[in-house]
Amino acid sequence: MTGPATTATPAPAPRGEAKTATATTAAARRRRARRRTVLVQTACIAITLFMGVPIYLVALAALSSREALNEFPLALLPTDPSFETMRVFLTSTGVTGAFVNSIEVGLLSLVLSLALGVPAGYAVARYAFRGREPYQLFLLMTRALPIVVLSVPLARVFLGTGLYDTTYAVALLHTALALPTTVLITSAIFVAVPAEHEEAAMVFGATPARAFTRVVLPQALPGIAAAAIFTFVTSWNEVLGAAILTFNRRTLPAQVLSTLSDSPLAYRFAGGFALVVPALVFIAFMRRYLLNMWGTTIR
Amino acid sequence: GGSSTSGADGGEGAVNFLSTQFTPVEERQRFETILSERVKAAPVAYNPVAPGVFASTLTSQADAGNMQISLVGGVHGDLAPHAQRFENLDDLASKLTDRRFPDEIAELGRLGGAGTMYIPWMQASYVLAVHKRALEWLPAGADVQNLTYDQFLTWMRDAQRGNGGKPVLGLPCGPKGLVHRFFQGYLLPSYTGGQITTFRNPDAVTAWQYMKELWALTAPASTNFDNMQEPLARGEVLVAWDHVARLVNAPAASPGDWVMAPAPRGPKGLGYMLIVAGLAIPRGAPELDLAKSVIEALTTPDVQTEVLRRNAFFPVVDAPPATDLPPAIALEAEAVRRQQDADGTIVALPPVGIGARDGEVSQVFLNTFKEICLDGRGVQQVLDAQATQLNTILDEVKVPCWRPDPVGAEQTCRVA
Amino acid sequence: MPVPVLLIAPSVVFLAALFLWPVIVGVSQAFTGTDGVTLAHLRRMLDDPYFWPAVRNTALLIVVLIPLQFAFALAMALLLRSRPRLSSFYFYVWCVPLAVSDLAAGLIWLSILTDRGYLNSVLAHLGLGDGFAWLSYQNPTTMFIAVLLAELWRATSLVLVIVVAGLQNIPRDYDEAAAVFGAGYWQRLRHVILPQLRPSLQVALILRTILGLQTFAVAQALTGRNFPLLVGETYQWYVGLQNERVAAAIALVILAVSIGTAMVYLRVLRDPSIQGRR
Amino acid sequence: MAEIVMTNLVKTYPGTKNRATDDISLHVDDGEFLVLVGPSGCGKTTLLRMIAGLESPDVGSVHIGGRDVTDLPARQRDLSMVFQSYAIFPHMRVRQNIAFGLTMRKTPKAEIERRVAEAAEMLHLTDYLDRYPAQLSGGQRQRVAVARAIVVDTGVLLMDEPLSNLDALLRMQFRTELKRIVAKLGTTTVYVTHDQAEALSLGDRVAVMRDGRIAQIGPPLDVYDAPADEFVGGFLGAPPMNFLPAHVDRTGDRVELVLGDQRLPAPDTLGGHAGGTVTVGVRAENVEVADGEAPDRVAARVEVVEPTGSAILLTVDLAGRPVKVQTPPTQRVGAGDTVWLAVDPNRMHFYDPATGAALRPAGTAGVPAPRDAG
Amino acid sequence: MAEIVMTNLVKTYPGTKNRATDDISLHVDDGEFLVLVGPSGCGKTTLLRMIAGLESPDVGSVHIGGRDVTDLPARQRDLSMVFQSYAIFPHMRVRQNIAFGLTMRKTPKAEIERRVAEAAEMLHLTDYLDRYPAQLSGGQRQRVAVARAIVVDTGVLLMDEPLSNLDALLRMQFRTELKRIVAKLGTTTVYVTHDQAEALSLGDRVAVMRDGRIAQIGPPLDVYDAPADEFVGGFLGAPPMNFLPAHVDRTGDRVELVLGDQRLPAPDTLGGHAGGTVTVGVRAENVEVADGEAPDRVAARVEVVEPTGSAILLTVDLAGRPVKVQTPPTQRVGAGDTVWLAVDPNRMHFYDPATGAALRPAGTAGVPAPRDAG
Ligand SMILES: Nc1ncnc2c1ncn2[C@@H]1O[C@H](COP(=O)(O)OP(=O)(O)OP(=O)(O)O)[C@@H](O)[C@H]1O
Ligand SMILES: Nc1ncnc2c1ncn2[C@@H]1O[C@H](COP(=O)(O)OP(=O)(O)OP(=O)(O)O)[C@@H](O)[C@H]1O
Ligand SMILES: [Mg+2]
Ligand SMILES: [Mg+2]
Known about the structure:
Chain A is an all-alpha fold. Chain A has helices at residues 17-62, 84-91, 95-126, 132-144, 151-159, 167-190, 195-203, 208-219, 221-237, 240-245, 252-260, 265-290. The radius of gyration of chain A is 28 Å and the shape is flat.
């Protein structure tokens, strides 16, 4: 093996008839690639329909008149949109206040559960301490017990503190409900952040806290975003706790959702839809943090 | 923190009113209008909640000794479990003698004890709603306003046949439906003359046999129906039995197409149930006096009529017959009146004095229904088994029977 | 004090302050009667005609639903990972059910599947009969499928979001290396992607199971009490029957099952390669 | 049959302006060992990735073994690779990591075991087979990556700085083994390295890259001895080739280079440039250093003395420019001493001062002195 | 004042049996440049990590600048480090990565900018300041890691193979710069490398590690010329030192080494071993190769000829053993030729065949020939 080609030949040697053959296989390959793209797109569209159509239908129903909802077969296109039920619903007593309360509770729970849960998630991910597993189970326990059986003693806890019938009480409860989720999800993401990055930060003079906020946290952003989304939507949609802990300062679901099933169908749709929209806006906002932005990760 | 959502910012000088009634958005809206227009004594923060929340809130506040609610309102079954948590309202009751509450209703307000625990607020009943299209199959000679259960069965059978094999009858058997009241207050009293004591006697067997046949003619989707006005409005069923408040929207759009009628009668008479809502004041409630003034205001004939007019709940006071009712409500009012005024009525009350076990007693009837009609078990065998269950509960609470069972003060109610 | 203890302490204190007493009260309810300790409530629970069907349905739902859901969520995540055009739009739509409460989800699916719902409307528009009773107690199979479908719709996004977040931190290097060494798509999935996704999958599995054991609103909306679930029974006993003691007994069953499965997941899915923990 | 033919490969990474590879055409024969060198960031990895199918070129095609594989996914190209960043799987033990390619090919268990043991032995990893990568040192991880690549018997082997974190001894041992394996299996190898000795001793040919292009390709010593331009001469070799501007003067028959006020004999072939200026390139080891004055030598002042072990590297000042020259370790010189330098005219290379390109027609530089090569 | 004193450092990683560092005591003077070399896996990184405070020793202590820092966290030790695996932050642009240490120290903005620009310039990263690490080549990433470490002005600088992925030219340029910076700031530096030239040209002292212990420490050329044992001799230098067993024979005044049936003069000091066997160590470049026979020379047959660019490496057979010798590139030899070898007795090293340890009292090996050093 002494005689490699003397120069860098720009063109491959064995061409000729082979050329057409390779050309066709290349074309076939490209066709296969295209077929793959089409397949992926088809799957995506199918799933999108499955996930999206129900939401479309609520929107449709929410903007239909009462009568339209009693017809059969139901119209599948918004032929005759009516904002009447929506209007009545949105102007009914307490809806604005409840909306404000819900936002307040949601954001407060978000901040609190991240503040409490992220450090704990980090500990679970990074340290092999005794009691790691019991701790996780302890977290889950609070979530595994149906809250309804705790409702009376829980309300009593808050009645004893003067927090009863404030948004703080609800926020605290929602924080507690979201905490297991936050801790576990963030811990799953923290394990994937190389410990070496943290070490580098510390070598360069960062305190553990700064190393965490500057280096670990940004890399764990997708997990934090996921946890944040859960916390917010959990809080946004939670009914029972909010209904038990407040009286005059309801959140939107407590104000609306709890009694929605007694309302006429049109209002149920209007209420259901109105409740979904703000959560959708929140998800739209958080979604970009779920996907990290600095290209592929490297080690 | 937080913004007020009750419309009256229930602070100092306001009455916090917790209620299980008028939860639907529109009804709530209308009742709040009545409160603000007609109740001048104090601003009222009206808070309609689901029954579970009602109970939890009341219990926790009472247990914590930190009562923040001034006034509660609910149907008898909502209030009964909390008898020991309410103020004695005898003084208020005596002040309100001019309201002339019917005796049996006032009696319910004592919750099986001696003192008045709640003041009657409104009443309601269950009737039949019938779309006029169903009348074409009505058996010859039958009067829709005065049916027997047998005629009803024939009618439904003919109607199903006429309707291309699809049942026209619907019953509220959904998870939040009230079909157990049909068994407790209508079917069984009409067939057996009783509710508890006769639970498994031969008449009861007949009644359930009848029910089995009727169920075969009932839309199977009924197990999802919490209220009947929507299936009716959709035309999914043409005939339905339900609480008046849960029927009122069906004829709203075209009252001319609808008929409202009393429930059928059985061998022992026309059994029907009285539904009473009451107002109570929790012990340790703030603004006690204001709350009493609100009760006074809510029991004036004027306000009572207004409630009927707007929200289809009937007065419990002696009010002049209301004119200018909306057509749908007028239909209902007429049917309720006919039902009350019919010959040979058997009035049934919801369980009295058994407090929190009300739900469990009702569940026994529901379980009986499930096992007989849905699971197809033998009637007698089911009744025997369920009777045991029922007696277990009753033996624990040890209360005398309530109507239509023979009421005797010293003896405890049991299934014979 | 060791660092990890300091880090978890706030959450422990917080939860204990809020829940310790309620949990003790709640749990003790199951064992106390008017006169002291009793097992009567447990017996009552076991005798209830709805209890065993509820156990069976809950188990069935969890066992069938969760694998389906994970397969579905993984498929979605992997589709997104291949970065098709419009992927960010797809991702958003696929997250949408997250925003929907279970009560609303029940309402939505009921409106689709009920006798005069959208599904039958579509069929009617297409001239395919005038309505099948999907949710009738007489058609337990379609009823079960309906519940399955609705739950799949409602709760898969949760798994999806966790999996997508987890996928973000897997360097593409490994996938590329595997491809170079001849691994096909499924082999890469099995040998490279899934093992690296293990922490996320573990968490999603735990959370999904526990939250799955907690939801009943959709099933209740669709089937009433024809398809009883354990949590639904808890609510029924607590709210409907106002017997908090039997409710607490059922809640304890749920708690035990939840913690039991979580423990199994934590043990079985423990990652042997993580030695880097301090 | 696994020759690799790259045709007009152009690749620009999204979001960057410069081409990572700029119209590269290259033919690697079946079984050839091609070494790729070039400054950091010149596109070596990119080129390997395009061969591997991990990056698809914007323009151009890749053929392997006569097949157009441009659109073929990596796993269908029958190759294996050592990644610059190792990319060993953190969740697998060393054993599974090494066996990965074999497992994917569904090799029988016993065979896998045998081959893994062999590769581990060769790379001194036997004791570490049951560890996870996180429990290894940097060099050990790199060796796992190498082992993983060489256990599979593929048509093409791509290695991206596979030995950068290993010590010289291990590197040398492995080099010998690699040569043996590759020769035995007839694997076509493309090997990226920054190590001079590796490039020269391993490669059948060496390709020098610069800014996404191939600056020169040829047998190692050709490239080393006769760099095609100043860049290659400066890049290959440690120390790099010295470049000095010189005036060409012809006095009768004699062609001479004028450096400052001193003169050096030049090859006759440079006569054509008489009167002009050229850049003279000469390697440190081709400068003969003498203590005493002699004809045809130029004087220079020693500025820095750097012992490198096997030789001494002097930086001397010649006509105001620093020149690196090498003497055997036995030579005794100190900073400040004056030394006399001579250069064999045949060892001189001449470049156009404007373009940096070799002045081929005018010198003998294009024809390297014949050598024995192992 | 930042001298580093390590005392009896022992570290065993959990889950492993062997000690990663085994009772290492080492003193690095303030401002000294210590180069650490050793086979892959010998514990170099572990030692650096213990100095940095990233790993706490099982036994022993670390003092920096007179302070016991054994239990001090990394950030309070005033040091900076180049990680073997770079550990640059993927979510920060190159600019932020380089500036990281300065930002943590709350350096003024303008100052940060200036210093980052300077470091980027030195490492040819100026064009890449606004990229994310994922958009860089391997060598560029490594340069970012180096730049990040040198922008901060700390008492101690730890570098773990900082240049392994860079080309020789860049490496050489950087070496010069690094020397300048470190000298200017008086930074105490510990530098791990596998590169011979780097080790010899950068270090004030070189420490050779083996299996978690320090095998030898001393000025570069001492270690190179007079390895303390066979291991060091074999490890340092490319090619490694040749080791040959030889019988020592005294004939009157003359001490000779008997290799097979040939004889070489040996230093007189070896006389004490007369009649015994020693291992002779000699470096390839210290063997003089001649074409013709002469007294005091031994004949050997050439087996392999390897041109390395600046020299030719011959593997010859001497008394049945392969010996590497080096000749200038001008020498013409081919495989199969016979050459005659001579070795200056002062360039020979002698080792105990049993232990591999240098026979110090009996040879001159302990005292290296005086040299100029830059
Ligand atoms: N986290 C760890 N867990 C267990 N063993 C380890 C760990 N890190 C390193 N080792 C082992 O300790 C020994 C020393 O490792 P170290 O990283 O210090 O080597 P090194 O000299 O830096 O090698 P290299 O030149 O390959 O980087 C090695 O045998 C390695 O396998
Ligand atoms: N993912 C990427 N996105 C943008 N630019 C990139 C990317 N990868 C590499 N580059 C750029 O492309 C050029 C070539 O990169 P490549 O990795 O091929 O260099 P290389 O020759 O392997 O260098 P090294 O010796 O440093 O590894 C570099 O300038 C680099 O900055
Ligand atoms: Mg590269
Ligand atoms: Mg190392």
